[in-house]
Design a protein that fits this description.
about 140 residues, 6 helices
Length: about 140
């Protein structure tokens, strides 16, 4: 248990170094301007439909207007929306919610990969390094 805790602390230190600008500006910055704005828009579409209880038109969005079910043209990301729903209710900030999901995804991937490599190689150092190489690849 102690080795797993040390691995998590080292992971958070490395994560903090790599993504320092995101962590310092978590409520206003995105990781980049390629896909994250689309992710924030999709999250906004899903959360607004859930808050309005508009499940009849859940997959209809304001893009490609005359067509129906336009949310299905892109990523739906329902599990991420469920995880980001509660930070959004607390802060009313979609960028913060998206960044919290991003950080949580990294943490969960590290934990699952660490357990995977630990099961295969039975060595803590190899499991730690293997997890880091996969996550930051």
């Amino acid at each position: 248990m102690k080795k797993i805790l040390i691995s998590l602390i080292n992971f958070f230190l490395l994560f903090g170094i790599v993504f320092r600008s995101l962590i310092l500006n978590i409520t206003t910055n995105l990781i980049d301007w390629a896909d994250p704005p689309l992710g924030v828009w999709i999250m906004h579409q899903n959360i607004s439909k859930i808050l309005e209880l508009n499940f009849q038109n859940y997959f209809d969005t304001n893009i490609y207007y005359p067509h129906k079910g336009t949310l299905l043209f892109s990523d739906i990301t329902l599990p991420q929306v469920v995880l980001g729903f509660f930070p959004y209710l607390l802060t009313k900030n979609l960028i913060y919610s998206f960044n919290m999901i991003f950080i949580l995804t990294f943490l969960l991937n590290f934990a699952s990969l660490y357990l995977f490599w630990k099961q295969i190689f039975k060595k803590d150092l190899i499991a730690f390094l293997g997890s880091l190489f996969f996550i930051f690849n």
